[in-house]
Amino acid sequence: MNVALVVLDTLRYDAFQRHFDWLSGIRFENMWSTGRWTVPVHASLFTGKYPSEIGVHAGNTTLDCSEPTLAETLSEADHTTRGFSNNVNITAPFAFDRGFDFFDGGWRVQNLDTDTFDWETFVTETRNRGPRRYLTGLRRCVTEDCATWPSIKRGALLKLRDLGISEQPDDDGASETLEFVRETTFGSDEFLFVNLMEAHWPYEPPQSYRRSDSDSLQDGDSYNGLAATLGEGPPIDSAILERAYDDSVRYLADVYEEIFSVLREDFDYIVTLSDHGEMFGEHGVWQHAYGVHPALTHVPCIISGEGVPDQQCAAPTSLLDVHQTILTLMEEDAPSDGRVLPTESVGEWVAKQSDSTTDESYACFAEHHGINRRSAARVAANGGDPSEADHELAGVATASGYGYETPDGLSMAEIVSERDGEHTASMEKFRNRLATHRKRIQRRTVEETATTSSVIQQRLESLGYA
């Protein structure tokens, strides 16, 4: 049995609906993430636990929990495990390679643990300075404390790509992912994890997909979601940001269609999902910097494969369920807070899951654990007060709706109903659900102690993380 898990990082549910109508399988229209950003959500996908249980969130960004990861469980049972991540946060320095027999990634995650000059961040930060920027970079390779010759070699490769001499398109790693899946000889008992970053800031698809001149994002180097949320907004017009994001998603949809086609040749099941959404000023929030608003936590998810019907599942489901589902498909077992998602008849699955007329027994929670120290330092350096966002919030989705905490109190969002008619729920029911969740969870107390290299710090800054 071969199963692939593909995370389309930062893909909003509504953007998925617009651009991924080609993707077949069971669509989970009421899928909820466990958090607002990459690290805690991937930790949940890998362990089947909420971020507060395993202590991996804004307060600790390393996957150092005692619980076994999905890849560890599968690898120990003699399944081949491979990972290809294009997100700096989901890499070996943060222990997200645990259990993988093979773990690599695209250009953004290369050379994280070496002393080579950080060309990737340099190119991003100097995108509007013309060809002379490479002379500046070469001079820094010689004068700064880095390995000179490897640094110059890396810069030359990036310059060839910039000139179009390299066959690699100018993207955030999807083309390298496509090359990886095309060139890999997969066996008959494999688990593959992939993270694609095309929908993530800095929204730079290949030139042919851009509807605006790249100069319109020239102030993007200073765009940080938390700073914009706690300050006066981003340095770029919101309409330009949304258009650039949509351009990036259009490219992601096209290139993922190619990747998906290759994967279907070797994999029995492919689980495609987003870890979280993106905000463009709704409720005063930008990027995915703060809160558990539904635009962040309501995410797309679809299971595809031979014999999987094209159906919709409107029952509330959680990304925690993906962990248990993959284990079951590969005939393995491990502790998990999730349940097994349907891969055949949705109607039969819903009937088995429900033990009441409204299926109120199952709830999907999302957690916000404040902000990490790198983001806090960025806001403080700009004269802001990071404590305004450094608190806990939570949301809960049931068959009745989605209730979520904000600084102004509890709010409720409409969601897809799995039955005809409306289910009404009082705010008190949502409050009780959240209170019960907090009491049930056995929290792991953590404190961020790990330090990151200057290269990792610069890469994170270029993605708006710090």
Automatic annotation (TrEMBL):
Residue ranges of every copy of the Sulfatase N-terminal domain listed in the record: 22-330
Alphabetical list of SUPFAM superfamilies matching this protein: Alkaline phosphatase-like (SSF53649)
Gene3D superfamilies, sorted: Alkaline Phosphatase, subunit A (3.40.720.10)
Cross-referenced InterPro entries: Alkaline_phosphatase_core_sf (IPR017850), GAG_Ulvan_Degrading_Sulfatases (IPR052701), Sulfatase_N (IPR000917)
Domain of life according to the entry: Archaea
Record-annotated membrane-spanning stretches: none
PANTHER family: SULFATASE (PTHR43751), SULFATASE N-TERMINAL DOMAIN-CONTAINING PROTEIN (PTHR43751:SF3)
UniProt protein name: Sulfatase
Lineage: Archaea, Methanobacteriati, Methanobacteriota, Stenosarchaea group, Halobacteria
